[in-house]
Amino acid sequence: MSSVAFAQPKSVTSPLQIPKFARRSSLFSPPNFFLPPGSRWDRFPALSVASSTDNSTSDLPPLVVVGSANADIYVEIERLPGVGETISAKSGQSLAGGKGANQAACGGRLSYPTYFVGQIGDDANGRLIKDALEAVGGVRLDYVKSVGGSPTGHAVVMLQPGGENSIIIVGGANTFGWPSVLSDQEGLEIVKKAGVVLLQREIPDDINIQVAKAAMTAGVPVILDAGGMDTPVPSELLRYVDIFSPNESELARLSGMPTESFEDITVAARKFHSMGVKQVLVKLGAEGSALFVEGEEPIKQPAIMAPKVLDTTGAGDTFTAAFAVALVEGKSRKECLRFAAAAASLCVQVKGAIPSMPSRESVTSLLQSPV
């Protein structure tokens, strides 16, 4: 791995001013990312943000994550059981997780102002999640709602040797108890003030649609992580999404196309261009990642290999959230991909989802390290 160092963002002495204007013809865009080919940036002010150690971080437009929170019940097994078979686990424990909570925790650990909007049950697992996010630091929980009558969502994570996992999710409060129409007090207010909004598919599609539409109206870019429900993504939701981010298996399932080769992956990703999504960010596991921008050549990012893989749970969430943080900080496309790859590499070296989220300092150190 070659040595790469990202310049620290410049600090600002006054609140960050981000132009918000109607999309799609004139979408808010950090430098070199959303700007259409041939367009000019000189009609808008340069985007600059404070470094992670600067006292002015409260002036930055936050990362807003709207999504799920789960209690992850980990069981370490040698292999998956067959039909009708009972096997013994080597160990088991409960840790906070869920794609939304994971991504919010990652934003906090990367020292970027982050809000989490989600629902938990009024139970021990709900307290587990709140305690874990509060311990991370940097994650605001103003819009986390405790829902009576629904348990906190939970997942059974079957962890096999080598760090690979299989997961079964019970939605609980992630899927029940949401208001039919979201109000500003229930999260839309902070969505409209965000620098970028992160969504996943472990909460109802109609909630994601309301959030994405509110973000679009305010000129805030939306990243949709494809993880969660295995049903087709509603076309209405895709209409409001700027970056769609599946992993390889999700891309194959949702596109209905093979992903055996990079050429196959390219064709499958471009299918979503035809559905109105201008950018498709594909997570390819050990093969790295690739960004497909409509009308441009794909940008590949090799994986930054970890010396030892203990647990891949949360690696995709870490990648997506780190990419979002780099994006709102104004990094280039390639820098966003590399920053996210470094964060994911650090994540898989620690067991658990939220406990494995890397710090800003550790990501920067990895990127600056020699081969």
Automatic annotation (TrEMBL):
Record keywords: ATP-binding, Carbohydrate metabolism, Cytoplasm, Kinase, Magnesium, Metal-binding, Nucleotide-binding, Nucleus, Potassium, Transferase
Residues that, per the record, bind K(+): 311, 313, 347, 350, 352, 356
Gene3D superfamilies to which the protein is assigned, alphabetical: 3.40.1190.20
InterPro entries membership: Carboh/pur_kinase_PfkB_CS, PfkB_dom, Ribo/fructo_kinase, Ribokinase, Ribokinase-like
Note on cofactor: Requires a divalent cation, most likely magnesium in vivo, as an electrophilic catalyst to aid phosphoryl group transfer. It is the chelate of the metal and the nucleotide that is the actual substrate.
Cofactor(s), names only, from the UniProt record: Mg(2+)
Binding sites annotated in the UniProt record for ATP: 247, 283-288, 316-317
Active site annotation, chain numbering: 317
Residue stretches spanning the membrane: none
Carbohydrate kinase PfkB domain span: 63-359
Reactions the enzyme catalyzes: D-ribose + ATP = D-ribose 5-phosphate + ADP + H(+)
Intracellular or extracellular location(s): Cytoplasm; Nucleus
Chain positions recorded as substrate binding sites: 70-72, 98-102, 202, 317
Biological-process GO terms, alphabetical: D-ribose catabolic process
GO CC terms in record: cytoplasm; nucleus
EC number of the protein: 2.7.1.15
The protein's annotated pathway: Carbohydrate metabolism; D-ribose degradation; D-ribose 5-phosphate from beta-D-ribopyranose: step 2/2
Activity modulation: Activated by a monovalent cation that binds near, but not in, the active site. The most likely occupant of the site in vivo is potassium. Ion binding induces a conformational change that may alter substrate affinity.
GO molecular function: ATP binding; metal ion binding; ribokinase activity
Subunit structure comment from the entry: Homodimer.
Record function comment: Catalyzes the phosphorylation of ribose at O-5 in a reaction requiring ATP and magnesium. The resulting D-ribose-5-phosphate can then be used either for sythesis of nucleotides, histidine, and tryptophan, or as a component of the pentose phosphate pathway.
Name this polypeptide is given: Ribokinase
